[in-house]
Amino acid sequence: TRLKKLITQPRDAGQIAADVLEMRQRLERDRPAKGVWDLKNVPGGLIDLEFIAQFLQLKHAKQSPHILHQTTGIVLERAGELGLVDAAVARDLQAVNRLYLHLSQIINLCYEGEFDGKNIPDGLQQLLKNAANVPDFDALEALLIKTQARIRNYFNALIE
């Protein structure tokens, strides 16, 4: 297709990385995260995962067109299969992507308004704890903080 032809053109990896980093910095400036529960915008959140996937596609599509897909999780999986990212890192990125999406879906379905993790019903806390397989809500927030830092480290290492 026309889009595939465009995406698989040879590109300067350094320029792609610079563009991605600039876009991420602009987003952080213009739409700063509201906290650990802003799973999309927080450094190490869904946007970082999406940018990693998009960067890998633009960087490697010419030599490895199999990486191309519209779904972030599938791109991350293929990056590991193709050896473009360490297999363990790719699995971790996929698992975190699934976790963030699962938590986001629960929040979107069960909570109205801006979610900050405070004063939420016990039933919703239980659903979120179960989704992350942690014993309590404090452990869930600690897991998110640790995970977000890890994903941001991957972002910084992979976007070079």
Going by helix content, strand content and strand pairing, the class is: mainly alpha
Helix content: 55-70%
- Give the N-to-C terminal Cα separation: 29 Å
Rounded average pLDDT: 94
* Global geometry: elongated
What does it look like?
The structure is a single chain. With 160 residues, the protein is mostly helical. The chain has seven helices and no strands. Helix 3 (46-60) runs parallel beside helix 7 (137-158) and helix 4 packs antiparallel against helix 5. The two termini are 29 Å apart.
Annotation keywords:
mainly alpha
Helices and strands in order, then pairings?
Elements: H1 2-7, H2 13-30, H3 46-60, H4 72-81, H5 87-110, H6 122-132, H7 137-158
Helix pairs in contact: 2-3, 3-4, 3-7, 4-5, 5-6
Summary?
The chain is built from 7 helices and no strands. With about 160 residues, the chain is mostly helical.
